[in-house]
Amino acid sequence: MLSSLLLSFTDYRIVNTPKFIGFDNYTRLFDGTDQYFYNSLAVTFKYVILRVPLGLMFSFIVAFLLNMEFIRGKSIFRTIFYLPVIVPAVASSMIWIWLFSPDLGLFNSFLEALGLPTLNWLYSEETVVPSIVLMSLWGMGSTIIIFLAGLQGVPRSLYEAAIVDGAGAMRKFLHITIPMMTPIIFFNLIMGSIGAFQVFTEALIMTQGGPNNASLFYNYYIYREAFLFGEMGHASAIAWILFIIILIVTAIFFRTSKSWVFYESEV
Amino acid sequence: MQRSRRISQITVYFFLLIGAAFCLLPLFWLIRSSLMTSLQIFEMPPKWIPAPFQFQNYVEALTSIDFFRFFRNTLTITVSCLAGALISSSLGAYSYARLSWPGRNIFFSLLLASMMLPSAVTLIPTFIGWRLVDLINTYFPLIMPVWFGSAFDIFLLRQFYSSIPKDLDEAAYVDGAGPWTIFYRIIIPLSKPALIVIGLFSFMNSWNDFMGPLVYLNEESKFTMALGLQMFQSLHSAQWHLLMAASTFVIMPVIIVFFIGQRYFIEGITLTGMKG
């Protein structure tokens, strides 16, 4: 870790020996000499902002529906929803390139059958990030299962008390389910954001950062600098900025969590 | 009342089935396409069932690139990592949970702290380190780290071991057992479920790992399946039926292991909150 910090202050191109250059790597990033830096930050933030809330909502809803009393075959559903998680990222990227394919992909033939305009998915600057977000929802299985476990842990006595007090389904959901689940929502929020900042394989296989760098995710950018261009020092600086961003984001979440996360033990 | 309840039940099932279809459809599409000729794939509107089944694709896909070699390579790495994860993490966790030695708590907090670092930060210096000892393009960088125990596994197992009553060790100790005997006669048998969980996740991680092999391996004969698949993609980018056959081949082993160990997978996630 320390060596990475030191490296970020050097000019190290894998062929030469590291040379100390102070903050040059960092200034190069911030003053815009490296034209990709701000671009990749923007792309990554766009992805995180789309993916984290959507992912949380999607998996919470699925878990909530699965947790309904009358649902049969819970374990079958659980297995089905978890199945995509185990598919190697390389293979799932391959499947999704195919589904997204503009002329023969499944999605476009659906849209066509419904009489809707087709999309260019991965091949247009506007839709490439949302497409990858859609694909990432496919792999939400573990979040769903964590939510489900949490929902099963909400004491039934609370609901029974609420029914006695005449609460309807909506009130039970808003005043019991959501508050009791906040610690788990919080956990998934943190894990989801940390994960979302670090997308890599999808970017490498599906788009190589394209079209026109519209999917140059931060981790892929680091990889490209370090291992394709051999700029180890520069890449270390980029990596450190990612680390600091993740720390700041996590710290903000923790700060604000006090006002909305509810811990049973504090009652 | 009865009627409206019926309707809401049907609605819930309806949404769940859509969700399940969303999860299964891509996999179904993969397998379907892997069994079609390239002409059939392009047919509009798309056919759901291949006719006839084109098993030929698999033969072609697997022979045009040496997938069996990649399969063996992946297996070697996975098995070594699996052994490493189980042996070193369980020993490490045992010493953190049951043995007392100076500095134990400090080391344990260091271990936990190391979990917070994003891999992108450590990857570059680690790579340079392996390069200095001239072990790039070998399996060492992929296997050795696991043999030093993963922080997460050690943490999980330590929690598990701590829940095993101490009386058991003490009784064994009185009977003349040393720490080794206690470890493999008492602790290991009692923590089988936790060890299975760790084994499954370790298997999955090294089987599915892409970035590690990508960074450390550069000779084709040493490639893993994940790399092989990527290579295959750039070679045959237009031949979807072959690509799909190759992808199915890469996915199958994980799916089989998943169905065998399914119960433990689900338990493992709820236990640990771990991402697959």
Automatic annotation (TrEMBL), chain B:
Topology of the protein relative to the lipid bilayer: Multi-pass membrane protein
Q: Show the GO MF annotations.
A: ATP binding
Check the record and name the SUPFAM superfamilies matching this protein. MetI-like (SSF161098)
Instruction: Report one GO cellular component.
Output: plasma membrane
Name the principal localization, coarsely classed: membrane
Q: Name one Pfam family in it.
A: BPD_transp_1
Any idea where this protein resides?
Cell membrane
Q: Does the keyword Cell membrane apply?
A: yes
Asked whether the UniProt record includes DNA-binding among its keywords, one would answer no
* Family the entry assigns: Belongs to the binding-protein-dependent transport system permease family.
Name-wise, this protein is Sugar ABC transporter ATP-binding protein
Protein source organism: Paenibacillus sp. BIHB 4019
